[in-house]
Amino acid sequence: MGFKFSKGPISIQEIKESRLLSLRDIQKWEEEFLVRSRGKNYFTEREFVETYRQTFTSGDAKTFARNVFRVMDLDGNGSIDLREFVLGMSSLTGDDVNKKIEWAFRVYDVNGDGVISPKEFKKIVRAIFKMHGRGVSSKEHIDRLCSDLMRSMDADRDGTITLQEFREGCRKHKFLLNALKV
After folding, report:
1. Could you tell me if 107 and 71 are in contact, meaning their C-beta atoms sit under 8 angstroms apart?
2. pTM (2 decimals)?
3. Burial, 124: exposed, middle or buried (Cβ in 10 Å; 0-12, 13-18, 19+)?
4. Entry's InterPro entries (predicted)?
């Protein structure tokens, strides 16, 4: 039974009681949150982007960090609180592959319509390359890579990737998930 990304009022205490995450993992993410938020009980997008910039110093992490922020801000209020941070980071770094795939799908599905378009896919892949400081000037290479991956994953040939197609694609192309690791 995997965790569903609820926008409901699940608290840290409820997460602890549900045993969705180990107490050790929750404590680790609580400590990380307090350090990165400088003791506040939330992150703004600007602060979150800055923490990514400090982590990924060899490239430009701004676009990617904004998309991660979008996915972590479950209630859409423009900030990430401790609960949202713990749930997001545990999905991103945990062992549950299905949870990782669902989380990654939400990053790639920029407009939230339930499918990944070629434009959305290119946007995130470019952001990943920029974040890691690799091949930013090689637009043709990134476009070709994205086109090949889209063709490979788009089983029904409708020009978009559904969550199920993305699941299958991630099993074939493991780097799609690995590229999102913090």
Report:
1. yes
2. 0.83
3. buried
4. EF-hand-dom_pair, EF_Hand_1_Ca_BS, EF_hand_dom, Recoverin
| Chain-centre distance for alpha carbon 30 | 19
The DSSP bridge partners found for residue 80 are 43
CA Rg value for the chain? 16
Tell me how many degrees the CA angle 1-89-98 measures, rounded to the nearest 5: 35
Query: Which residues, in sequence order, are CB contacts of 38 under 8 Å at separation 6+?
Result: none
Q: How far is CA 33 from CA 58, 69, 133, 162, in A?
A: 23, 14, 26, 32
**Are both 76 and 110 inside the same structural domain?**
no
Q: Which two tokens stand for residue 17?
A: 């009681």
Torsion of CA 142, 171, 115, 104, to 10 degrees: -80
Q: Quote the CA–CA distance of 60 and 55 in Å, as a whole number.
A: 10
Show the tokens assigned to 106. 């939400």
| Structural domain harbouring 66 | 12-94
Same domain? For 77 and 113 the reply is no
Copy the structure tokens of residue 119.
């434009």
- What is the tens place of the pLDDT at every residue in 3-41? 344 444 456 676 666 656 778 888 888 888 888 888 899
The pLDDT > 70 percentage for the chain reads: 85
